[in-house]
Structures
1.
Amino acid sequence: MTRVLATLENEDLGWDGKTVLAGVSLSVASGERLALLGKSGAGKSTLLTTIYSRLLGRIAYVPQDTGLVGPLSAFHNVWMGRLDDHRTARNLRTLVWPSKAERATVDTVLDATGLSGLGRRPVMNLSGGQKQRVALSRALLRGGDVVLADEPVSAVDVTQGAELLARLDETFATSVIAMHDVEMAKGWATRIIGIAGGRIVLDCTPTEASDADIAALYV
Amino acid sequence: MITTRKVVLLGFIAAAVVALGFADLTGRHTDPSVLLARMADGLLHPDFSIWPQLLNGTMLTAAFAVCGVFFGAGFGLLLAPLYHIRAVRTFCIAIRAIHELFWALLLLNITGLSPTTGVLAIGIPYTGIFAKVFSEYLDEASRAPEAALPRNVGQITRLLWARLPQCAAPMRNYTLYRLECGIRSSAVLGFIGLPTLGYLLETYFKQAHYDQAFVVLAVFLLLIIPVRRWMKWRLAPVYLLASLAVLFAQKTPPMGSGMFARFLHDIVPAPIRTGADWGGWLEKVFINQAWPGAIDTVVLSQIALTGAALIAFFAFPAIVPRVAGRFGAMIGHLGLVLCRSLPEYMLAFVLLQFFGPSMLPAILALALHNGAIIAHLLGRQATSLALRPDAPKGLTLWGWELVPRLSANFWALCLYRWEIIVRESAIMGILGIGTLGFYIQKNVQELRLDRVVALLAVSFLLTMAIDQLSRRLRASMRVGTQLHIEGSRGNARR
């Protein structure tokens, strides 16, 4: 049984009074894997944050800039995915003095994303690809119904990127991911959303999308 | 409307000329050569036999500074997240507008000549400064981590996990920088009786023991100039505990009980307490004291500001190697470090011994100290400018590249120091010049605390007015909008 999680109907999206995407109609159903494609600046992030704001339930969100706190360790940044599960006092204690159990929980996720042993390293000392893995680890630790991610594997190589996406699929039933790599999107998604010229111009399964359709997104 | 720099410059020159007309620069009429000879003799034959007093004075100067600064940093950190609330902001502006010396003069009536007075006199105004600067750091922190947090995370957790960690390093740096200011404040508190180096300096100079006075001055410089070397963040807890131990070990003259209640009673204006005539009180306080005090404060500060600007303008290339050469830049650094390490008040006191009582020592002290600070900040920027490889050297570089490129920052820094110079000018009255501090101290001695509070309010309003004017000018001249001068000072010494 699929269930509609969020719906947009002929809406204009944008910020600061400026429309980025016009006449957007889109719904996200449970079990779907949506890949958002389009040139940089086309409006993928705008669409993604809008979907984020419409979704209810437990959502994991990986913004494009990763949203990490540089001076804090990888452990702390990953644990941030669970801050709303605990009270302020507990969170304060974890910030200052993480327990062994908490560290072990995070280490499991770090192992899965290829960051074994980096839990205590300040995030600002990590490479771009490692930072993206930390941001993905945060989402994996959080878990939930849906994951939304904005170019989450743009700084890791293709094989590793596919592995990381597979990890997300193990944890989340539904995902909406903005992507820069068309081949990766076609191999992973159940549905392709193409954005160009301020509109959604493509909404189909990967097999239905022709090379010409895809190429038109990047003109 | 964009006010052109030329108009503002003419305005400041006119103000300085008018102020010079009002200023008393006469000084001593006797022959200074005898005095100079005695001072030179003292300088050449320093007397180190006073080392026990020196050791005690140095320890206490550092202890007051450390405790006062950490008091301010702690409460400032607590207030910083609330700084956007109007009442909190107003409270912070008010406590930092009153100078440490004025706080000490007030607190003497409650806590006497005790360590508490020294720590609070530094800690209270510093709380206001820390709250402002820390809140700026929090505002500048990236919002991206908060956007990535789960949506239901509470305010405090958001602040502690996402915002504060980004600011921790600049906050630590700023606290260490403030410690340097704290040592200056602490030394100056000696001039109103607290047992710091300022007290020793005043005592020996007044007794004409120049051989001892110059030793005190040298020890103060040895304490403050390498502060970044001996004060490391890791060692901060050690210094704090040691400072607390030193201060708790002090024997303090006993104060009568109920001093705070009496203080609260005494600051109520006399006409309310005693039913005396309001007209007489108002005339005495505002016409006879506040008015001439404010005039002299403004006169002193305008001349000093002009002097500081001139010194900065011509001295900043002295620390730029491309202008002064590497050796020259070292000499330049030494000169600027000396001038900005000595607090204005202490510098004025020493110069007063040369020039005799007039406005001149205070003008020179304010101009030298503030000019050296502006020159230091400008010179550092000038050194880090990316110049083309074939750029000229020497004074040609100064005139053709550095001055035009840095002139907006020069204006911003001068306008920014304006308010600080006014605050310090008010204090100079305690040395015997007719600024607001003179009347404030007079009333403290006569135990007329109601008048003290009224004059402090005038001093506060004057500072606020200058601050507003400076802000407006900076905005309309479009200078320093992206320059967080106070906030960036923490990193300035790195």
Note: The mean pLDDT of chain A is 93.
2.
Amino acid sequence: MIRTEFLCKSFGKLDVLKDISTEIKKGEVVAIIGPSGGGKSTFLRCLNLLEVPTRGRVYIDGVDITTGKVDIKKIRQNMGMVFQHFNLFPHKTVLENVTYGPLKVKHLPKAEAEKLGLDLLAKVGLAEKANAYPSRLSGGQKQRVAIARALAMQPEIMLFDEPTSALDPEMVKEVLDVMKDLARTGITMAIVTHEMGFAREVANRILFLEGGRLAEDAPPDIFFTNPRSERACQFLEKVL
Amino acid sequence: MMFHRLDSFNLNQLYLLGQTGLNLDFSKIVPSIPFILQGIAVTLSFTIVSALIGFAWGTVLSIFKISNIKPLKWFADFYTSIFRGTPLLVQLSLIYFATPQLTGYAIPAFQAGVITFALNSAAYSSETIRGGILAVDKGQREAAMTLGVTYPLMMWDIILPQAFKNILPALVNESIALLKDSSLVSTVGALDLLRRGTIVASEKFIYFEPLLFVALIYYVMVMSLTWVAQRFERRMRKSD
């Protein structure tokens, strides 16, 4: 479903990603972990071209999106993204945030979009906040709305960029619970996270990025108990 | 025509030299008050029309300025430098006196004024709007992009509403400056507040009273505009 070949990204002289080749299959839940500055977020953002790779290829459903010839808007409609800082539209209500994509991009009729929006808000447990503005919500609630907004486009892939890093500790669980429910629906997920417990429990695979390289690619039970690379051992010692 | 009027100004000043000292007599201008007050409508409609056109054109220019298309950016920068680098009165005179010479169209004073002020105000407000757009968090843009929203729609629905909200106080200041500068159209003979004041003055050979009265009206208008803007801003802030 997603495949990268020798993906490189440099910011000026700084090489953030070095030859990342990997594949995420349909229905897989992949956690991308590693130390700060290791290139996790950059890798994720290259998958929907929020960052344009310096070299290498990214294939989505077999289509190379780095050629500049594909309509990236169409590809992005099928790849929801959730950000560390939520990025809700502050001048729109919760429901308007969620229905914006379906209305303006997919041109769904208003009634249909609102029904879809309310269903999704109910799924993330926020139906009663439909008419509130984002500024009235807690961090955890904002992030759940952001997840609903991304899901409203009914994407086959969901990208999560440190979805719980900006949250107060007591709000982390409510967001992770929503993501766990989502993982069970069979949607393809790529999650950059520092939540090791969550990664271990929910992910099918762990990608460990360190110094811009894919240092380890393993199922969670193997990665967390028996990592091959020394870097991963050191990292796990610090965080577990 | 302009020089003729200036001549009569000087004659009146000579006449005044004979009777110095401060003995205000507002009763003399009472019959002319309705005539002066009609200038409020002229000055206000002039300001509003110029501000609206200037704002719309300024928004377009600001989008040119942040565009990746170099010629558009050059054009907008050059345009701004011209209108900021020459005196407003020179621009007004050029448009008022040069238009008939170039096109044979005897442009009415009001029209020449609106065109000059709109073009001029667009140059100034385009800088303000550009700043407002750049101040919108880049996450907003990314959130819209990941939904697959087109660039014009993203600008219109997501970025500009937030930008305008941020720069509302600056835009109000711009309109206040415009309201005050609008008195310059009296130099080409438009019957605005100041022009009416000077007409009354030269008819009755009293200067202080009608001009002071005109100044008071400007002051009240500017203060009311400021007050309305503050209320408006407070209400906008509540929706955050």
Note: The mean pLDDT of chain A is 94.
3.
Amino acid sequence: MLTDLHHPDMSKSEIKIGEIQDLAPFPAELEYSCPSRGSWTIAHTPMIIPGAYMIYIGASSCLRGVVLSAAEYEGMDRFSMVLIEEKDILSGDMEELFIEGVTDIINKLDKRPSCVLPFTGCIHYFLATDIEYIYDELSARFPDIDFMSCRMTPTMKENEHTPEEDMRRSMYSCIDRLPVNPLSVNMIGNNQAVSHAGDHLALLIRNGYTVRDLANCYEYSEYKQMGESCLNIYSLPVAEWSCECLKERIGQPFVYLPYTWDFGEIERDVDKLADTLGLEHPDHASARSRAEKALAEAKAAIGDTPVAIDYVSSPRYIGLARLLLEHGFNVSEIYGDAITPDEAGSLEWFRENFPDIPFRSTANFRARFYDRNEAEKYGGHLLAIGPKAAYFTGTNHFVNMIENNGRYGFDGIAWLAGAMTDAYENEKDTEAVIQVKGWGCSA
Amino acid sequence: MKQVVRVLSTYSADLFGINSVLYELGGLVVMHDASGCNSTYNTHDEPRWYTTDSMIYISGLKENDVILGNDEKLIEDICETAAETHPAFIAVTAALIPLFMSTDMKGLARVIERRTGIPSFGFTTNAMDTYISGGNMVYGEFLERFCPDERPGHGSNKLSVNLLGVTPLDFSIIGNVEALRSYLEDNDIAVNCCMTMGCSLDEITAAGKADVNLLCSSLAENGALLLREKYGMPYVTGLPAGRYAAGKLAENIRQAASGADDCSRSNRDDASSFSAGQHAYGGVWIIGEVVFAASVRECLENDLGLKDVHVICPGERSCGLLRPGDVMTHEEEDIENCLAQASAVIADPIYRRIMPRGWRSRGVKFADIPHEAYSGRMYRSRMPLFIGAGFTDVLQDLLCTQREIGMNDIMKNNVPFAKKKKY
């Protein structure tokens, strides 16, 4: 049965991009969660660590989402829980429940895990649970297992470090210092392995470097071997703190090579990488030309079809919209709730060039009331980049890109142009695809 | 060890039960929590989320508001949303942290109602109990509030029922609700109100027009009890699952309507009567929501001639349907003990994970009946229609063929990045 809901004031969940003054332009009110689910969560990301086993300690409602995520990617063999009850909050025995619960689980496993990731929740911090004592005791009981202290603390999402940043910190916290291998480099923080065709990795591989990417590791020893690398590279802002911690703890320097869509920035960043490692700057002309050609071909195929973009697709989604507009595409709308400081330049460009493009919230309560039939208005011919844009516009033509899909630089641009053409020409089962949680995750 | 869940899942939580019951009634429902509960509910427990609009939101509780006790932020946000959307009612539920803060949910609702003029409800959920508990909270409070003290006139000579406890958590969206309506229609019984899939708040208000309440899930037991107390309405507990029950249930409804036999069997037992220490040994075990599980037991005993059939009830209500040897528990350790010598198990596929070693080679049978409130959406394509006489054949087939569900529905649509397993 359809319910007759009154429509709220939609002007409060949509503004013109040229009018954005604040990087979080919508007020913090009741939050909506749309059915698009491609992003990886804390129940997915640690699965890229070979041999890792997750144990969550919390209330059943908090744990239902994570256990069913694990079940859906067929990962329940790597997952257990300890349920908190009301008496545990009152008794002050949270440490004992934690230690004995984790111990019981490990002792009954058929297979000894290489590392265990116990997850504390918000409640542990509000109760001032002695986390340090817990890990000291667990490490003493299981000296052959690495413990990574992880948090599921959504109430603390506006703290100095977000839960997503903390997840990345934890995941790399058992990499120990090894003798430095000057020809080994780590990629830090990605869920999907970074493509070796990306301009930065191509440079490294041409120069004989071994690139260690956790998403590509299949043995725990490969994870530990990351300790020998001479440099860490990260492209997702959420991995910055992890790199800072690695530098402080085991002395690995790091460099930020963002998933930019700006030609000049790609060249500067790749050159920066070359300088860091003492390599010659590559000749960017042919890569740039390939990207230009791919964009031109995509434009010829797609024409003036409206293109909608969301924040899930790329951490630099404003920059992506700018790239497409600069190449003649008809970007009709952008879906996001916050913008990173990295995007200030692109925002300024929009103010001067395309100030009227609508910027729509995905999480404000009013987002529930979007018509979701934009594609229908264009006879089904609307191309979305990102799963949330696909949902909100109601299109079946979309690129299921999540956090850049590991594609970087000019190569990433050429890849996206090809993916856009493919999406324009071929429909997807939007409802089935975008509801998969943690797209690409498996155990 | 108690509280350790080594291999199993959890049931849908109390606040999700409230959401599910209220989903179609045009209200504003707010879970007071940081985040996570919202996406958990609408991803795993709410199959209507993609296609049917409903105002289920989360408050976005943050650390500072926890420490400073800033209830005013929640109240203001709700009032602003209500001012724009004009909901039929407002319901606020609490997750773990509000419980820890001792948030006065009833008090919050009173303030919200005073400011908005909209009927408001505060539910002191704890995020640790199951959807059964949450559902009962709603049924108790909503029927008390919205059903007038004076029973409305019948308006028809035809025998009619209210269906209590119908949500996707127990019935999914695979046709069970439609089948239940058809069954009643075929038996010349009208449905006054199907609470709460395909009904309106007005229909709930007029619940007293029906002759009998049919309690379809333990999540609505409070509703049946309240309407009995308020209007003297009898109720019948059960589902027409299988040949025997399909024949018997309509008869029970008629008897209840005539006043000859009130089949209400509420609260004759409690959890302490069915503790894990008193469980039966061996035999057939059914795990699940108690009205469904008891209905499956009827089918096994009366249609298939099986004996020694026991129930594990993981929810908080037994509805008078348990027998000696049955167990009320959600503890993995207890369930493991109950199933140790089972000859057959009928349960959600996730329970296969707790079967004793070597069970297949010993000829133990397992029949998969996915339950949305347990495994969520992932096996929906394999949920059987359990309403109607045809369920007997379905159940027999499941027990005989021992077909296992391979890849779940979600993984079928996924494309894993990793080339091989990492564990």
Note: Chain B touches chain A through 86 residues (CB under 8 Å).
